[in-house]
Amino acid sequence: MAENEKKLGLFALIALVVGSMIGGGAFNIATDMATGASTGAIIIGWLITGIGMICLGFCFQNLTNKRPDLEGGVFSYAKAGFGDYWGFNSAWGYWLSAWLGNVAYATLLFSSIGYFLPVFDGQNLASIIGSSVLLWAVVFLILGGVQSAALVNTVVTIAKLVPIFLFIIIGIFAFNIDQFNMDFWGGDFNLADVMGQTKSTMLVTLWVFIGIEGAVVLSSRAEHKKDVGKATIIGLVSTLLIYIMISLLSTGIMSRSELADLKSPSMAYVLESVVGPWGATFVNLGLIISVLGAWLGWTLLASELPYLAALDGVLPKYFAKENKNKAPVNSLIVTNVLIQIFLLTFLFSDKPYNFAFSLASSAILVPYLFSALYQVKYSMEKKETKQMGIGIVASVYGAWLLYAAGIDYLVLTAVLYALGIFVYRYAQKENGKKAFKPFELVWAGLFVVFGVIAIFMLATGKISI
């Protein structure tokens, strides 16, 4: 990387973290949560997510400060702690999650555009064509240089927060405590039922927090390495407060059944119920800006990580090529070709947004869990009791997410991880290394087994997309 390349400052890094996390999910979170959970369970879900994500954020902050040499962040932590294969799986899983997230953004974006132009509905041919045009427009922007793309992301992040803050302010005045308390536990309180409801919120809350590591992934382009940790924590706490306010204020305005039946984006129709049609118009415009920003931010991350992984020998060297503007050109092209292919799911998925974001959330579980586990291992070696405790909490949260994700999406994700075996073998051969150690073969075998199960379940209709 050129020495005179412009670097990212603290504000740009914070904007990248917030911009990556606050995408389309913020605008539909009320319905996504209410579909499976009552108000009480939603509060418990946020409590679990808040503790888990803050601990994970502190893991990223601490590891960034203590191991600045591990510039790839998510995948490099797994590689340093648990070997090449898990380093690869973390890079692979993160990459899968990043571009699958953009598929989710595409369907939500064109659902919102459909409010103004009915030819789009978020899952028809017109939406695929529109998404494709936007997809490659973003590619050309990033090919002009990561720094210029990050600047655009900063501006868009500021712009998209305006309708969210407006919703929160109006929501505070419209909040009805009786509505909020109505059907608080989804019937009579039953611990097993409430925990089941809470479990249903986990992939939703994970989805809206994917991006917490955005500054870490781009740490090699940061002006000051310590800004990476600061940006992660500031962005996380700010976003957590915004999400809690959106979801809980909504339950004080409309009933759970009403929220669950709203079209996307639900925030638009909640606000419309309070102030009239202009509220829906304003929020839909905000969503369009928000998703455009998140799409840009995630395209940056989705192309940057394979590039860094290739430099580190984790992925094939093909991904390490840069253009004259220091943009990772091959990584960018391959990533967006895959997104282009997955846009076709719009045509045969009943709920393409839910399918894409659930698959993206499942894919990122491995990178997050192994980052937390490496924090535990590193802290044990350095005898840092406090940091080890934070890592343990984050690891328990990661393990809980694996359980909460449910068997359907875990086995579907296993198909994608199983396909990664071929890429890993090629990369190891390219670097003159033996592909698998004996215990790594066991894990690879499990991915294959679960992948076969997923294909069988799809073929027999036991899993639907």
Structure explained in plain terms:
The protein has 465 residues and is mainly alpha-helical. It is 75% helix and 0% strand. It is globular. The protein starts with 9 loop residues before the first helix and ends in a 6-residue tail after the last helix.
- Main sheet makeup: none
Q: Could you spell the SSE succession in H and E letters?
A: HHHHHHHHHHHHHHHHHHHHH
Cα-based radius of gyration, to the nearest Å? 21 Å
Q: Count helical runs.
A: 21
* Contiguous runs where pLDDT drops below 50 for at least 5 residues: none
Overall spatial form: globular
User: What is the end-to-end distance?
Assistant: 42 Å
Helix- and strand-based class?
mainly alpha
Helix content: over 70%
Strand content: under 5%
Mean of the pLDDT scores?
87
Number of strands: 0
What key phrases describe this protein's structure?
single chain, 465 residues, mainly alpha, 75% helix, globular
Short structural description:
This protein has helices spanning 10-21, 25-34, 39-66, 74-82, 84-113, 125-143, 146-174, 177-181, 191-200, 202-209, 214-217, 226-251, 256-260, 266-275, 277-311, 329-342, 352-363, 365-382, 385-405, 407-430, 438-459. With 465 residues, the chain is mostly helical. Helix 5 (84-113) crosses helix 18 (365-382) and helix 7 runs parallel beside helix 12 (226-251).
Write the layout of secondary structure elements.
Elements: H1 10-21, H2 25-34, H3 39-66, H4 74-82, H5 84-113, H6 125-143, H7 146-174, H8 177-181, H9 191-200, H10 202-209, H11 214-217, H12 226-251, H13 256-260, H14 266-275, H15 277-311, H16 329-342, H17 352-363, H18 365-382, H19 385-405, H20 407-430, H21 438-459
Helix pairs in contact: 1-7, 1-12, 1-15, 2-10, 2-12, 3-9, 3-10, 3-12, 3-18, 3-19, 4-5, 4-18, 5-6, 5-15, 5-16, 5-17, 5-18, 5-20, 6-16, 7-12, 7-15, 10-17, 14-15, 15-16, 17-20, 18-19, 20-21
